[in-house]
Write a structure and sequence with these properties.
Rossmann fold, 4-stranded parallel sheet, 14 helices, about 15% strand, disordered N terminus
């Protein structure tokens, strides 16, 4: 979408800011907005994108925080120069050259409209990628692997398969031939390297963190907190991470170690409230136990320990997956 030729309206809600930011990143990456280019004024942007003044300013401020634009008082926002702009636009020349080569081949060999053909090819590429994903996220549990694979798909638009280390090690799961890169966390990198059958597959480490929204929700809960896990060292480490995330004002998190076979009885005990019973706690389950929780996962006072891919890891993750042209929105 060109800022001078479209009156399309962006989506609703907080997503409007992200969509304007994505548009700006792509415009800079593809050379439509070059160094010194003046972004649409607030008034122009309101009409152009169907958003309000505050949304425009927040989106432009986000681009400024990313080091892509600068704010000149009483003049507006301009594309700046520097390493951040160079990073998102570094594929421009090679992609321009590739575009011209493929465009000429389409005209010569098919007689089709290049634009129409590229649109068809983009849809076909997405369909094929859904059928045969290029990447997979590998973790020790299906819950973790699936959660991070969904993040990759949603954030980068690249379908991502979820695989588990136990499934691969036990030969219950196989890595499809279409997959050329495995993503994993630092905790499992060495393990995944062994399973990757190098040099066919590359392995990229993706840093993760406790999900801030999850931590904020937990901090508002009343009553004691209990964390259950299958390993003493893991459950103590996770309990400390959660304490750090939700603040020192919260009472210490109690921890219990048990097997998956003992989980049903432990949850029954913790969630049974009688006249003389203490308040029901908020129960946190480590990923292994969450996978085994079954119907208990629907209980309002039972939560998994929730992680997300760290915000500052997205650029490197996009690079590892071979995504050009500023494919990632940074905070």
């Amino acid at each position: 979408m060109s800022p001078n030729s479209s009156s399309s309206v962006f989506g609703s809600g907080s997503g409007k800011i992200d969509q304007i930011v994505r548009h700006g990143v792509h415009a800079i990456a593809t050379g439509r907005w070059v160094e010194g280019h003046r972004l649409p004024s607030v008034r122009e942007a309101e009409e152009l994108w169907g958003v309000n003044r505050l949304t425009v300013l927040r989106a432009y401020q986000r681009l400024a925080e990313m080091g892509l634009v600068r704010n000149e008082p009483r003049r507006g926002f301009f594309v700046t120069a520097g390493p951040r702009v160079e990073r998102v636009s570094r594929h421009r020349v090679e992609m321009d050259r590739l575009y011209e080569t493929v465009r000429d081949q389409i005209r010569r060999d098919t007689g089709l409209s290049p634009l129409g053909a590229f649109r068809y090819l983009a849809d076909l590429a997405l369909t094929r990628a859904r059928q045969d994903p290029e990447c997979a996220f590998v973790e020790c549990t299906g819950y973790q692997a699936g959660s991070h694979a969904k993040e990759i798909t949603a954030r980068l638009g690249l379908p991502c398969l979820a695989l588990t280390t136990t499934g691969l090690a036990g030969n219950r799961l196989r890595i499809p031939q279409s997959v050329h890169i495995l993503l994993t966390t630092s905790f499992h990198r060495a393990e995944v390297m062994v399973l990757a059958d190098p040099p066919r597959l590359a392995v990229a480490e993706v840093p993760v963190e406790l999900t801030p929204e999850w931590a904020a929700q937990l901090s508002r809960q009343e009553g004691p907190i209990v964390m259950l896990g299958v390993s003493q060292s893991v459950v103590e480490q996770l309990a400390q991470e959660v304490m750090d995330a939700i603040g020192d004002a919260t009472a210490p998190i109690a921890t219990r170690v048990l097997t998956t076979d003992q989980l049903e009885g432990a949850l029954e005990e913790l969630m049974t409230a009688g006249p003389d019973s203490p308040p029901r706690p908020m129960v946190l389950l480590t990923p292994t136990l969450w996978d085994a929780a079954g119907a208990w996962r629907d209980h309002e006072r039972i939560l998994p320990v929730e992680y997300r891919i760290r915000e500052d890891a997205w650029p490197a993750t996009a690079d590892a997956l071979g995504l050009p042209l500023g494919a990632v929105i940074e905070p």
